[in-house]
Apolipoprotein N-acyltransferase
Amino acid sequence: MSPKERVPSTYQRNALAPSLVAAAILFLAPALFQANWAPLVLFIASIFGLIVGWFALQARHWWWIPVFLAIAVLWNPVMPFPFSGVVWTTAQPVAAVVFLAAGATIKVIRK
């Protein structure tokens, strides 16, 4: 018996790792907001939104770009919006799911 040769993947998913990090932070956001770590959540969501948006641009997945620009603006830590309540608490896991969906679908052909 000969060992099987490993066949390299045809695609690479550059947006997967930043999406997983952002999704983890956003799923933990309600607890982090109560512990006064809101600036950390805002920084991570905004910066990783721009990073994933850039990977979407490189992969020519244009439909993701406005979504991540909106996330970068809504979660921006420089001039934060005074969001609170149920809508803002619900927006955190919704954005996390958006990050996960984008991380799974944004891919480029490996060269």
Remarks:
- Strands lie at 11-12, 108-109.
- The helical segments are 16-27, 29-34, 38-58, 64-74, 85-105.
